[in-house]
Prior knowledge:
This protein has 13 helices and eleven strands. By secondary structure, it is α/β, with parallel strands linked by helices. The N and C termini lie far apart (52 Å). A seven-stranded mixed beta sheet has the order 4-3-2-7-8-11-9, with helices on both faces. A two-stranded antiparallel ribbon has the order 1-10. It has a two-stranded antiparallel ribbon with strand order 5-6. It folds into two domains: 6-221, Rossmann fold (3-Layer(aba) Sandwich), CATH 3.40.50; 227-295, Helicase, Ruva Protein, domain 3, CATH 1.10.8. The mean pLDDT is 96. The structure holds S-adenosylmethionine. S-adenosylmethionine binds next to strand 1 and helix 3. Keywords: Cytoplasm, Methyltransferase, RNA-binding, rRNA processing, S-adenosyl-L-methionine, Transferase. Its main location: cytoplasm. S-adenosyl-L-methionine binds at residues 27, 29, 54, 75, 100, 133. Pfam families: RrnaAD (PF00398).
Amino acid sequence: MSRQTKTFLMNRFREMGISPATRHGQNFLIDLNLHRVIIDAADLTNQDVVLEVGTGTGALTTLMAEKAAAVITVEIDGHLFELASEHLIDYPHVTMLHIDALKNKNHFDSRVMEAVGERLAEAPDSRFKLVANLPYNIATPVLSNLLLCEHVPHTMVATIQKELGDRIVAQPWSRDYGALSVWMQCQADAEIVRLMPPTVFWPMPKVDSAIVRIVVDPVKRNSVPDLRFFHQFVKAIFIHRRKFLRANVVAALKHHLSKTEVDEILAEMQLSEEARTEQLDVPTLLKLTELVRARAPGWTL
Ligand SMILES: C[S@@+](CC[C@H](N)C(=O)[O-])C[C@H]1O[C@@H](n2cnc3c(N)ncnc32)[C@H](O)[C@@H]1O
């Protein structure tokens, strides 16, 4: 029997005297075909160094270890770390970390990136990929922060809440368009590969899920002169995305730009006073950010 079916998992958890921890987003994929879909979407080869956040029982890890040059897998839960260690012991190119992958909501634990850096250094010309069935409570910081890390991924393939997937691929004027859509689309091509009902997991989550693929585009990424500034500025003006853009820029740049300066910038961009933040596409936001940055280079959120 596969060691990731519902019966196997239920028995193992019972033997260990534990139950899945909701606070850690422990919903395990029990439709094993979907592991294959994830791996195929990531197009894994022996040139890839893979980061997995959430080892779980190690089922996906083992499959990735068969294909990739190296896998760094991170698990917060001691019981699961132990369970996965039993299965991963025969894979010397798998680095297992028993830590919280995130130091805080804006930063990875430095040990994660150190381990990734070491594996990348061992395999020249390797590509870095994130492939994971992510715990839903940390999916946004994991995907967002990775794009600001020292080692930027070539591709990220992740199982996430469907609602989050919708936000990542959303277009201007739509209900789901926001700072996260802009942050992803300014530097990557993002798509939803597969939608999944709760029944493919044990225990079943309360929401639908999606597998997303985000492929970083170096040309797009290079067209953002200051990624950190852009990230912060877009976050600030999208807090009230339905409001008038002018009000949002004025509020975000309070103490840094006067209302007259904001009006000058909007006039230069030929944006009316009635323009709403939610209507701005990525190229327009890039241009706006650069005009703001030129006048307030030291601004931070
Ligand atoms: C959705 S499960 C995925 C497990 C497994 N990869 C699978 O495909 O079935 C998420 C896993 O992430 C772990 N986890 C949750 N928060 C974490 C964090 N902050 N750092 C590392 N692992 C975490 C959970 O304990 C759980 O094992």
